[in-house]
Design goal:
heterodimer, A: OB fold (Dihydrolipoamide Acetyltransferase, E2P), 7-stranded mixed beta sheet, B: Rossmann fold
Chain lengths: 620, 356
């Protein structure tokens, strides 16, 4: 458990993807089975046991600490698991022994390493301090105090660690296997025993694990990639066999280390690596013939793969995967009954209300939910818009040209005959000019009332097979132009990792009329979009024009005639009560630095409010 | 001496030491301890700049503390100076003063002030954990113990510093192409970290930010073994791969770091125990190494002094006062202003920053 705790601890602070991979791979290399397998399971979210509730953790700590000290500590630390991990008292048995066996006022030579330290001191010092220290013993007072001191003492901390009766800390395997079989009433006692045995980091990791709140910025995909790195394999290969594997993944590690053959996936509903598109540039069109392509709307939802099949006993199974292969079925149980024919659909997850596609902001309410309540599924009805058919029954369709797959998809969706699944419409066009017009105004080109949820246009070669990854020249995405506003830089914050010496996170604002006249109100934050050279320029500007510092944040000058105007591109707007301005941007990034523009000419909040009200206007 | 006999006047502890605007004042002795404003006679516990300030008429301190003040402020940092050894007893006015090792940094002292049979120990900053770069903390039994409370919450338990150094060295081994930058306060913490790195068997040169060269040189001149040290200034970026550099905490997030190949930012401080604090500073490798006593150290020391009355100075006073009172000890916060925690205040002067 301690090794795993160290890994989590280090990962929690590491900002860089490649460095995270290195840390995880190094852990897999140095830790044995089955511990590393359970670690992989924990990182991929594959562990399932009934999680401990925060109330239980609170009860445990309340029984062991002074409530005032706990309240002050919790207030300072701000995180329950961490507070408990840090202030969990050392087991009481050793404390008593250590304390009563040595008289409290120990003179200095007994306490430190007076002789071991390498500083030269005049010899008379030691003898005189020792004599002075023992010369004023006030023993009665101390004996009176000892009573309240048991178990809280740090005295045993300073003793060499050779307590008898101290069981070794549990391994990750012990923790996982015990948690799986443990009854609800046994949980508090077991948890307390483990907390006694572990160190601070170990306790923190244990509490993260048992409360199911890891939140250390590691995706399942990243953990699988780290495992793949162990054996120089392609993470896609792990993705393909993953659904057939179970913790602690002994056969996976055996294969990765070259000790055994690749595990065979017998899963009836496997994930298939997703095909992705390249962004198209204006210059690309010259070499492309419109007649070779089929165009569809690019919907602003979540790309998924919905797979159905029958297991060995003939039971129907359905699973929903994200585009990286993560199983997200649990978040969308309301879609499962609709996937009642064996096949694999590549499509977009959307929220539809009264037949109308809702914005991504609405769909967002359905994401990353631990509990999917009936109210949630009713208020945010989920829908699958089908783009492609990768398999039908036992047949793999991926080698067929897109036109043929499309024909089968049309028939498949018709047979499915389910209100929650429909076909992605194609766009009629005979020239690139016609498609350009459609992209500019999806509403009159077939998208109708759903035009607002259209993110752009997809172009697919009629003869393209379904290939994993991002093959050249097969699929193109042609996004709609983003919204653009001119905003004023207000605050800058240092970045993380490689950017930690640069002010690379920018809060920007637009003008509005306030009580004190014209003022800037923050409307968003962006930390990319600029070039390396532009980053240097902004960083220099920030350092030279800081008016105040708040920790890592700098308040940058923003007056009507002084300051920096940033051209900000973004994909959409939503109302947000959490922001002072009342609006929140989706995917904002810095598209240009407007050194030429005085801040007074930047945009106004009213402009954003108009965008919110109107249908998506095409920016000039 | 007071003209009236003791049984009539009955000296109370607060008659001996009292907080005032300039800091802790000893009226019967005619001096202040670690005054924050210039005074005529100052007793200084250790060389950190919030405790040792320039401009006093006379300064009584250990030789090391006087040397450090001279290094920082120049020769004329005080009107007169007098060095005192640990354990040496001195008469100042109506009181007796004695210095005892505080284990905080080289030359750091607790000051025991005795008068009329009452002994008050002003411990200033102290730690009871082992430190190869300074004399170990000495427990001084007393009637009133004045304690700091920098880490005065039960969440602060510092653990074994050697384990933290292992973390650092493991990271250096795992990322040989990256530089490791360790933020450490330049007086005391930096030298302790270097000594711990050596104790762990790492014998490659350790690089230093320009702001810590002088004080580190002083430590060596006092016999503290630190192994091969190099100035980082002028070293080629590529040559810093796989190395360890010590720098003041503020420098580890500044433009200065751009000279290092993909640096891993570490920070050696007791604050690193709390994740939010580490993350707020953009630290990637927090090292819980403190020169202050942790919660267990504070409470164990308070109990072991035998003092019936505890005065709590800078830090998390509330929790420590509460703890004392729950154990039947008279305790109160002293509300002294002007003392900070050095890790939060180790700013690099602009000029040094540019050169280093």
């Amino acid at each position: 458990m301690n090794r795993f705790a160290e890994l989590l601890d280090r990962l929690a602070y590491e900002p860089g993807r490649n460095n995270k991979l290195r840390l995880i791979t190094s852990y897999f290399r140095s830790v044995e089975d089955p511990d590393r397998g359970y670690a992989l399971a924990a990182l991929t979210g594959a562990l399932s046991f009934k999680h401990a509730k925060p109330g239980l953790i609170r009860d445990l700590i309340a029984a062991r600490t002074d409530p005032v000290l706990f309240a002050l500590s919790y207030d300072y630390v701000g995180d329950l698991s961490e507070t408990v991990a840090l202030m969990w008292p050392k087991p009481a048995d050793s404390g008593d022994v250590a304390f009563s066996s040595c008289p409290p006022p120990r003179p200095s030579p007994a306490r430190g390493e007076g002789d071991a330290q390498n500083i030269e001191q005049p010899p008379h010092n030691k003898s005189s301090t020792a004599a002075a220290s023992v010369s004023v013993p006030s023993l009665p007072a101390r004996e009176g105090q000892e009573g309240g001191y048991h178990g809280q003492s740090g005295q045993e901390d300073r003793q060499p660690r050779h307590h008898h009766n101290n069981p070794p800390p549990p391994t990750l395997t012990e923790v996982v296997t015990t948690l799986r079989s443990l009854g609800k009433t046994e949980l508090p006692g077991q948890l307390a025993r483990w907390l006694d045995e572990l160190d601070e980091t170990g306790r923190w990791a244990l509490l993260k694990l048992v409360t199911g709140a890891m939140r250390i910025g590691i995706s399942a995909r990243l953990a699988k990639t780290a495992a793949a790195d162990l054996g120089d394999k392609d993470p896609h290969d792990i993705e393909l066999i993953w659904p057939g594997l179970a913790p602690p993944y002994l056969e996976l590690f055996a294969w990765l280390e070259g000790r055994a053959a690749k595990p065979i996936n017998l899963d009836p509903v496997p994930f298939r690596p997703v095909m992705l598109a390249h962004a198209i540039e204006d210059a690309d069109f010259a070499g492309l013939d419109a007649a070779d392509f089929i165009a569809e709307w690019k919907w602003d939802g979540i790309r998924v793969q919905a797979v159905s099949g029958r297991d060995a006993r003939g039971q129907m199974l359905a699973r929903l995967y994200s585009r990286s292969g993560e199983d997200i079925t649990g978040s969308f149980p309301d879609l499962v009954p609709s996937l009642h024919l064996p096949g694999a659909i590549d499509g977009e997850l959307l929220v539809l209300r009264d037949g109308r596609v809702q914005s991504f902001n609405v769909l967002q309410q359905r994401l990353n939910r631990k509990v999917v309540s009936p109210k949630l599924t009713k208020d945010y009805p989920i829908h699958l818009r089908a783009y492609d058919l990768l398999g039908e029954g036992e047949t793999d369709l991926r080698t067929l040209p897109f036109v043929e797959r499309r024909a089968r998809l049309v028939a498949f969706v018709a047979r499915l005959n389910d209100a929650r699944v429909d076909l992605s419409a194609t766009i009629d066009f005979d020239s690139w000019d016609a498609l350009t017009a459609a992209r500019r105004d999806p509403g009159s080109a077939g998208a109708g009332d759903d035009a607002e949820a259209v993110e752009g246009v997809m172009l697919k070669r009629r003869d393209a097979p379904y290939l994993p990854g991002r093959p050249k020249g097969q699929w193109w995405k042609w996004k709609r132009d983003p919204h653009i506003i001119d905003a004023v830089l207000m605050y800058a914050q240092r970045g993380h990792g490689k950017r930690s010496s640069y002010y690379s996170d920018y809060t920007f604002g637009v003008w509005t009329s306030g009580e004190d006249g014209e003022q800037l109100v923050p409307v968003g934050k962006a930390y990319f979009g600029f070039t390396d050279e532009e980053l240097l320029q902004i960083d220099r500007f920030v350092r030279r024009n800081t008016t105040e510092k708040f920790g890592p944040v700098r308040h940058v000058v923003h007056e009507p005639d002084q300051g920096l105007v940033l051209e900000v591109a973004f994909e959409g707007l939503a109302r947000s009560p959490r922001h002072k301005s009342g609006v929140a941007m989706r995917f904002p990034r810095i598209s240009r630095l407007r050194w030429d523009k005085p801040p007074r000419e930047a945009d106004r909040l009213e402009t954003l409010e108009r965008m919110l009200r109107s249908d998506r206007a095409v920016p000039v | 001496m007071s003209p009236a006999p003791d049984y009539i006047t009955g000296m109370r502890p607060q008659d001996i030491l009292m907080p005032g605007p300039a800091g802790l004042c000893c009226q019967p002795g005619g001096f202040h301890i670690d005054p924050v404003r210039p005074v005529s006679r100052a007793v200084i516990t250790h060389g950190h700049s919030d405790h040792a300030r320039p401009g006093h008429g006379a300064v009584l301190a250990t030789q090391e503390t006087l040397d450090m003040m001279r290094l920082r402020y120049g020769d004329n940092f005080a009107g007169r100076t007098q060095a005192v050894a640990y354990g040496e007893e001195m008469r100042l006015g109506d009181v007796t003063v004695k210095f005892h090792p505080a284990g905080h940094v080289l030359g750091s002292a607790q000051v025991a002030v005795s008068c009329d049979g009452i002994r008050i120990v002003a411990s200033a900053d102290y730690k009871d954990a082992p430190d190869p770069t300074c004399a170990p903390f000495e427990l001084v039994p007393c009637d009133v113990f004045i304690t700091e409370a920098t880490f005065g919450l039960p969440v602060f338990r510092h653990g074994d510093a050697a384990d933290e150094i292992s973390k650092l060295l493991a990271s250096v081994a795992l990322f040989p192409e990256r530089a490791h930058l360790v933020g450490a306060y330049s007086l005391g913490k930096a030298q302790r970290v270097i000594a711990l790195i050596r104790a762990a068997g790492y014998d490659a040169p350790v690089y230093l930010h320009g702001a810590m060269e002088k004080i580190t040189g002083y430590y060596r001149s006092r016999g503290v073994a630190l192994g091969a040290l190099r100035a980082v200034k002028g070293v080629k970026k590529a040559d810093l791969a796989g190395t360890i550099t010590l720098a003041p905490p503020s420098a580890t997030s500044d433009v200065w770091t751009r000279r290092f190949p993909d640096p891993v930012t570490a920070f050696a401080s007791g604050w690193m125990r709390v994740r939010a604090r580490a993350r707020q500073r953009g630290v990637e490798l927090p090292l819980v190494i403190s020169d202050h006593a942790d919660w267990d150290g504070l409470t164990a020391t308070i109990a072991a002094t035998g003092a019936g009355e505890i005065w709590v100075t800078h830090g998390q006073e509330d929790a420590l006062v509460h703890w004392c009172r729950a154990r039947g000890l008279a305790a109160r916060p002293l509300d002294l202003v002007g003392y900070g925690d050095e890790d939060e205040s180790d700013a690099v002067p602009a000029a040094e920053d540019a050169e280093a």
